[in-house]
Specification:
Length: 322
């Protein structure tokens, strides 16, 4: 008898339905904002906790686009934290969850604040309209995770799908990942197609796009013109540093190292690999255990320098809140 009584009392408490919805919207927005802020300073476990809360609130509301947005950000966080396998699990769970809701009419006009339903054409959740939340973003994360895991043949498909997205930013990043995958598979046609897609963007081009383009250009001529490949890779390194994408910066440093090695500059190649290793080794998040890629780069560098100098291992975790 308590439940009906409580339900009746809650309806007479003076809190309007709109107030309750507003409080839920605020909680979702706060969780998403908290996740972004934590991710920006590499507090991955904090970011993951915030995005899981955002997903929970979106599921509670049964808002497909909000579910898609929060799940995407959760997968991106897991990928940034170095857990590509878990990012793939999240992507699959998001696909399964959204598949049930394709074509669903949203119950509450406008969707949760910050969700693509409320701001993106073709994904509006205004009452009476249907929702198609997957715009290629999940393909993008899936391709990146598979690339990170070295599963290049599997990564090629979702990378291509992402490159066909009707959202320009997703399509361009998809073309870039497709190019990275193609370079690893010795697929020059797809690599050149990625370069063409990025180069075709009219100025002004973002620093992110220019960094992507320079990296693909370096990979395309790595074996035929290593000196020029070094220049392209060095440009990509600078642009990655400018945008704060340090994992991509480390990858570009490794490309520059490969070009230096091909150009007969072995000492330079070793130094570049060691720089990439130390940058990855200084990444926040986790328990301070070095990134496996950092360990590999340092081993390949064959230099007697520490991976984590200055005792940074003691501070490279995210056990505290931002």
């Amino acid at each position: 008898m308590l439940l009906p009584l409580w339900a009746g009392l809650s309806g007479c408490s003076g809190a309007a339905k709109d107030d309750t919805v507003q409080e839920q919207d605020t909680a979702y927005t706060q969780a998403m904002d908290g996740g972004r802020q934590a991710l920006a300073i590499e507090r991955y476990s904090v970011a993951e906790r915030e995005y899981r809360e955002a997903v929970r609130l979106a599921l509670r509301r049964d808002d497909p686009s909000a579910i898609g947005d929060a799940a995407y950000d959760l997968a991106v966080t897991q990928l940034a934290a170095g857990d590509a396998a878990q990012a793939l699990v999240t992507v699959q769970q998001a696909r399964d969850t959204l598949r049930m809701r394709v074509g669903q009419t949203a119950i509450v006009p406008g969707g949760l604040p910050g969700s693509s339903a409320s701001v993106t054409a073709g994904k509006t959740s205004t009452s009476g309209k249907t929702v198609n939340p997957d715009s290629g973003a999940l393909d993008l994360v899936s391709a990146a995770a598979l690339y990170r895991l070295g599963r290049l043949d599997e990564a090629a498909g979702p990378a291509r799908q992402a490159s066909l997205s009707d959202q320009t930013d997703i399509a361009l990043r998809g073309s870039f990942i497709a190019g990275l995958v193609a370079a690893g598979r010795n697929d020059s046609a797809t690599l050149n197609a990625g370069i063409h897609a990025l180069a075709a963007v009219k100025p002004p081009q973002s620093a992110v796009l220019r960094g992507d383009l320079a990296e693909l250009q370096a990979l395309a001529i790595l074996n035929t013109n290593p000196a020029s490949a070094m220049d392209f890779a060095a440009s990509s390194v600078d642009l990655r540093r400018e945008t704060g994408d340090y994992r991509a910066m480390a990858r570009a440093l490794s490309v520059e190292a490969r070009a230096a090695q091909a150009a007969g500059q072995g000492a330079r190649a070793s130094a570049l690999l060691a720089q990439a290793a130390q940058s990855l080794g200084a990444r926040g998040g986790g328990d301070g255990t070095p990134d496996p890629l950092a360990t590999r780069y340092m081993r390949d560098a064959q230099l007697s320098v520490p991976l984590q100098p200055f005792d940074i291992r003691e501070v490279s975790h995210d056990s505290t809140s931002p």
